[in-house]
UniProtKB/TrEMBL annotation:
Matches recorded under InterPro entries: Methyltransf_16 (IPR019410), SAM-dependent_MTases_sf (IPR029063)
Ranges of biased composition (kind: Polar residues): 20-34
Native species: Cylindrotheca closterium
Domain of life: Eukaryota
Bias-annotated ranges (Low complexity): 187-198
Residue span of region Disordered: 1-59, 180-205
Name listed for the protein in its UniProt record: Calmodulin-lysine N-methyltransferase
Acidic residues composition-biased segments: 35-59
Length: 328
């Protein structure tokens, strides 16, 4: 082999060695990058597993969120003093997912603090509102937690009707049937010829109904639920339904108007409004409009919870104008 050929061979070997060295370096860097990505994913997994701790529901230790693939799929409510837990799905059908990008729809899939405190207040102060049924009509109920808890806590017969906009009622109905199969079945059983038995079942039921806030809509609902008009609701509840920046002015105006209709149709019904105070929420204007209907007594604030300055809850009550006084 000539010296020239020997030199060329050495250069080729050195070049091959350099290429191998670069390959090893690149492979090593790639493995290091993969390790870093794995570490990041592990950290993300750790943070996602603790995301439940950061959820608003964790303010109440009896409400637990259920998660699948970092998406909340439901809540479990172990209400103090209740005989069993409520399992409530927050998943919507495919056709109803798109509206969630509208805040008004998304709000209907959350358990809000105002709803929890409303049930606590009612159970403490108004569990014996009448000598008869402890019935409740809930407006804009979302997941319907207050109404479901109210129905669960009453061992005696009681009637609960949960209402919201049509896009949320299918999910609401499924949750009602899952948690109260016997009570919800009583609502659909119309083939029994025993009138007394039918009346008993009617007074011990829970159901979900669509309701758009209008005088006509509420009047029709009351006719459907009350039948001969003798079974008025003891309580008409709305929670976190007054927030003008999200729902608009028309929303609280419509709510005030139908509450005025409710008060005229059933003066003894306790009208309960529970809200979380927010800037520009329109609550004062809502109260003024409701009182201006001339059908209600002046609204009375019965609770102001400011334990968390970022989540101040206020509860107001009133009744239709009558000789009956408004107790706290």
């Amino acid at each position: 082999m000539s010296s020239i050929q020997h030199q060329q061979q050495q250069e080729e070997e050195e070049e091959e060695l350099n290429m191998y060295s670069e390959t090893v370096t690149i492979t090593s860097n790639k493995n290091q990058l993969n390790d870093e990505v794995d570490d990041t994913n592990t950290a993300d997994d750790d943070s996602s597993s603790s995301s439940d701790d950061d959820d608003d529901d964790d303010e109440f230790d009896f409400i637990e969120s259920k998660w699948e693939n970092m998406v909340e799929t439901g809540v479990v409510v172990n209400w103090p003093g209740s005989s069993r837990a409520l399992t409530i799905s927050t998943k919507l059908e495919e056709d109803n997912i798109a509206p969630l990008f509208n805040g008004t729809q998304w709000a209907g899939t959350r358990v809000w603090k105002a709803a929890v405190l409303a049930v606590e207040y009612l159970w403490e102060h108004h569990r014996h509102t009448t000598d008869g049924d402890k019935s409740m009509l809930e407006l804009g109920c979302g997941l319907g937690v207050p109404g479901m808890v109210w129905h669960l806590l009453h061992k005696e017969q009681n009637k609960v009707v949960l209402t919201d906009q049509p896009s949320l009622v299918s999910q609401l109905q499924e949750n009602v049937e899952h948690n109260f199969p016997a009570s919800s079945e009583a609502n659909t059983n119309t083939n029994n010829n025993n009138n007394n038995n039918n009346t008993k079942k009617k007074k011990n039921m829970i159901q979900a109904k669509p309701l758009s806030w209008s005088k006509e809509g509420l009047t029709k609902l009351l006719e459907e639920c009350d039948g001969d008009g003798e079974d008025k609701f003891d309580i008409c509840l709305n929670c976190d339904c007054v927030y003008e920046p999200l729902y608009g002015r028309d929303s609280w105006e419509a709510l005030a108007d139908i509450l005025g209709v409710m008060a005229k149709a059933s003066p003894n019904t306790l009208l309960v409004t529970s809200v979380e105070r927010r800037n520009g929420d329109g609550l004062e204007n809502f109260i003024e409009r409701l009182e201006a209907t001339g059908n209600v007594e002046p609204m009375k604030q019965v609770l102001r919870n400011a334990d968390d300055k970022h989540h101040v809850i206020e509860i107001y009550i009133t009744r239709g104008k009558s000789n009956r006084s408004i107790s706290s």
